[in-house]
Write a structure and sequence with these properties.
CATH architecture of the largest domain: Roll
Number of helices: 8
CATH class of the largest domain: Mainly Beta
Strand content: 15-25%
Helix content: 40-55%
CATH topology of the largest domain: SH3 type barrels
Number of domains: 3
Largest sheet: 5 strands, antiparallel
Structural class: alpha+beta
Order of helices and strands: HHHEEHHHHEEEEEH
Strand order of the largest sheet: 6-5-4-3-7
Radius of gyration: 22 Å
Distance between the termini: 45 Å
Number of strands: 7
Length: 231
């Protein structure tokens, strides 16, 4: 690997993580010695790249530093197009339009030599079969998640019995052919998963839930991990 490519990979590696990454971990991924990695990081810092940290503790990339889109590699462009193609097939209408807009924006800034790797990416997503149709607007659910607003829903179980719930929405999980809304249910006093095709009515409330969404996500993940460990 050329040294210039290695330096760019170090920056990209640090961009993936919000917390410090150890030199040993980076050296193993880049397949270089720890000594070489420390020298490369020192050179990047000298060149003005805002890397903070120290040997034995770990390194983080300072906020505000970015690379221009033309630095995308062929593999990265194919990964982006695969993800956008998946969203176009499985997202709600607003997400589908957003996906098309992203394709147009990236294509505009890419140099001519890279555009075939993006527009003609050979990675395809399968069509949706047996899709279950939602009766609610998922874009409104996503808005409630972003603003941490409670949702009042009417939910039907597998027997068709309906209950009124107030939930704190924190995430949407996409499956074929259905989607699950993850949230804290005030009725059940715990985390629950709601199939979006079984929500017959929904209202976004003005009231916000008190606990930060990321903290709720962390608690939900811990609960899921315990359940999987016990099963």
């Amino acid at each position: 690997m050329r040294r210039a490519d290695r330096l760019l990979r170090i920056i990209q590696l640090l961009r993936r993580h919000r917390r410090p990454v150890t030199g040993q971990r980076m050296a193993e991924e880049l397949e270089v010695s720890l000594r070489t990695l420390y020298r490369d990081i020192a050179d990047l810092i000298t060149d003005g790249v805002p890397i903070r940290g120290e040997a034995g503790v770990g390194y983080v990339l300072g906020e505000g530093y970015d690379l221009p889109p033309l630095m995308f590699k062929a593999d990265e462009l194919e990964a982006i197009m695969l993800g956008l193609s998946w969203v176009e097939r499985r997202g709600d209408k607003v997400l589908q339009l957003a996906s098309a807009d992203v394709v147009a924006k990236i294509g505009t800034v890419l140099p001519e030599a890279l555009r075939p790797f993006f527009y003609d990416a050979p990675l395809l997503t399968a069509p949706r079969y047996n899709e279950l149709v939602d009766r609610i607007d998922l874009s409104e659910v996503r808005s409630a998640i972003r603003t941490q607003r409670k949702l009042s829903i009417v939910y039907q179980d597998e027997r068709g019995e309906a209950t009124n719930r107030v939930i704190w929405p924190i995430a949407i999980t996409y499956f074929d052919p259905q989607r699950l809304l993850v949230g804290w249910c005030e009725l059940r006093r715990g985390f629950r998963h709601f199939r979006t095709d079984r929500i017959s009515a929904m209202t976004q409330l003005e009231e916000k839930y008190r606990e930060p969404r990321l903290r709720l996500m962390s608690r939900w993940k811990e609960e899921r991990a315990r359940e999987q460990h016990q099963s």
